[in-house]
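Friendly challenge for the regulars: who can give me the C-alpha cells for this chain first? No prize, just bragging rights.
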Amino acid sequence: MLPEFTLFQWTLAILAALGVGVSKSGLPGIGLFHVVVMAHLFPGLASTGIVLPLLIAGDIGAVLLFRRDARWDYVFRTLPPALLGVAAGWWLMGHLRGARFGPWIGGIVLGLAGLQFIRYRRPDLWQHVPHSRLFAWAIGLVAGVTTMLANAAGPVMAIYLLAVSLPKDQFVGTAAWFFLLINLLKVPFSAALGLITPSTLAFNAVLIPVVALGLWLGKRFLMHLPQRWFDQLVLVFAVVAAIKLLLS
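First reply, four minutes later:
Bragging rights claimed.
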C-alpha cells in the first residue's frame, strides 16, 4: 500500500529518487539530499528501510554504466572492515533506538574533509597515509557503521577515494561496486529490524524509474565535468553533508 502523500510530498520523493540516481553515476557528494528528504517524509529509522532498495537500484545501474572502471584493490581493502561496521551499526540500531548518531557521523566526515583540504594545500604531507592498510580499515569500519545507521557513508567513502586520487570514472565505478555489495548485505539486517516491508517495497517500485533517469543524467553530467571540478565539488558536498549531520 502506497503512503497517502500530498502532491508536494510526492514531488519531494521524486526529487529524492532522482538524487539517488545522480549521486550514484555523477556526483557522489549529493547523496545526503535523498537521506534528508526521506528522513523528512518518514521520520525515525523507517527512512533507512525506505532508502535502501532505491540505493541498491542505483548501485546496480552505476555498476552497469561503470563496470569497466572499478578499482577492485580499493574495494577489497575497505570491504571487510565495512562488513564489521554494518554489524556494529545494526547492533547500535537495535539497542540505542532514539539516539542521535548524526553529530558523531558529521564530526568524522568534517575531520576527514579537513585533512583532505590540508593535503590539497600540502600535497607532500601524509602522502602515504591514504594508501596504508590501517587507513583503509578505519575508513571501511566507519563507512559500515554510518551506512547502517543513516545511509550516510557516501561522504566517508568520497573522501577516501579523493585521498587516493582516483580519476572520476574509477571513483564512480569503485564506489558503485563497494556500495552495491554493502547495501545488499544490509538487507537482512534492515528486514530483521522491520524496516523493509511489502508496503515500503511497493513505494520503492514506483520510484525506481526515476532513479534510472537520475543515473542517465548523472553520467551525462560526469562526461562533461573536468576532473579538478569533480574533486572540488565532491569535497564541498562532503563538507555540506557533515555540517547537516552535525546539526541533525
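The chain has a mean pLDDT of 85. The CA atoms of residues 1 and 199 lie 5 Å apart. Your move, everyone else.
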